[in-house]
């Protein structure tokens, strides 16, 4: 095996030249349903036991726009993996009692599964209605509310981390507590210029446990009590000063707000539509074939 692998570099240039001449004017990436036997004049590029690898077997492996170095690397990796697969197959054939008929059946089933999967995926991409209204999301949320229990603490508010030495800290504290639109704009400009980290989208639910990671807030003994009694909080460590504003909150084991699970619900609805679309496709194809007398069961 080592001798074979060491010979990979010798094949590289020859391999690339052969592939270039073999596939000029052809598609570089295509799939064949049935492998073709090599011609009597085609020279192999690798061998292991009585198995040979031919230039046509590398079709689609190397892109015509790749550099010589990248082509060589990819070709070598492909040949090395081919060696490994052939060795595993040979080992299995020597040590296992294999039912060749069963193996062929599984290969055929696998091929059909791939073809069917690609067809269904293309059909879904072309026919799936991806428009989901706010009413649909609300209806699903209300009907499945018990499935949206929070597993973390969340809050609406703002979070800012500033360097220990930051100018105009008094002005920043005033802006941070203000609800005036013009002050919010000034606060954002300040944070863009000076903050090490910040989140100012006060209308969005944030994961509290993620926000306080690597901050002094991680040492809080009772998070629920902290959320309940703190609207504005300031702390510091050797890396910076932390400012937290809490406008509203929900704790774990409570029902999640619909806004916090909107994306999750949208994905669930889309998945249900995909399943229904595929089931209908299969039923329609079967019904059409049955009505056309293309299906027949013999006694």
UniProtKB/TrEMBL annotation:
Q: Which domain of life is it from?
A: Bacteria
* Isomerase found in the keyword field: yes
Query: What's in the keyword line of the UniProt record?
Result: Isomerase, Membrane, Transmembrane, Transmembrane helix
GO MF assignments: isomerase activity
**Transmembrane portions of the chain:** 12-31
Q: What is this protein called?
A: Peptidyl-prolyl cis-trans isomerase
Which species is this record about?
A: Agaribacillus aureus
Q: What does UniProt list as this organism's lineage? A: Bacteria, Pseudomonadati, Bacteroidota, Cytophagia, Cytophagales
């Amino acid at each position: 095996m080592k001798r074979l692998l060491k010979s990979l570099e010798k094949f590289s240039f020859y391999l690339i030249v052969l592939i270039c001449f073999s596939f000029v004017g052809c598609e570089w990436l295509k799939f064949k349903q049935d492998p073709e036997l090599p011609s009597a004049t085609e020279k192999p590029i690798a061998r292991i036991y009585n198995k040979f690898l031919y230039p046509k077997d590398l079709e689609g492996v190397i892109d015509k726009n790749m550099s010589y170095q990248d082509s060589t690397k990819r070709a070598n990796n492909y040949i090395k993996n081919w060696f490994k697969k052939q060795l595993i197959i040979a080992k299995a054939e020597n040590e296992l009692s294999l039912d060749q008929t069963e193996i062929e059946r599984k290969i055929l089933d696998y091929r059909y599964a791939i073809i069917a999967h690609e067809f269904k995926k293309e059909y879904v991409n072309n026919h799936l209605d991806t428009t989901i209204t706010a009413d649909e999301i609300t209806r699903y949320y209300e009907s499945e509310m018990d499935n949206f229990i929070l597993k973390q603490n969340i809050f609406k508010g703002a979070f800012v981390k500033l360097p220990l030495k930051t100018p105009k800290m008094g002005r920043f504290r005033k802006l941070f507590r203000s609800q005036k639109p013009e002050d919010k704009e000034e606060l954002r400009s300040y944070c863009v210029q000076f903050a090490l980290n910040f989140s100012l989208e006060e209308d969005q639910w944030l994961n509290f446990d993620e926000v306080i990671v690597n901050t002094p807030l991680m040492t809080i003994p009772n998070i629920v009590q902290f959320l309940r009694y703190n609207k504005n909080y300031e702390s510091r460590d050797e890396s910076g000063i932390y400012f937290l504003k809490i406008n509203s909150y929900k704790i774990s084991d409570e029902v999640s707000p619909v806004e916090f699970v909107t994306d999750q619900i949208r994905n669930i609805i889309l998945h249900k539509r995909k399943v229904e679309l595929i089931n209908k496709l299969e039923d329609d194809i079967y019904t059409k074939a049955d009505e056309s007398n293309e299906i027949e069961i013999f006694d």
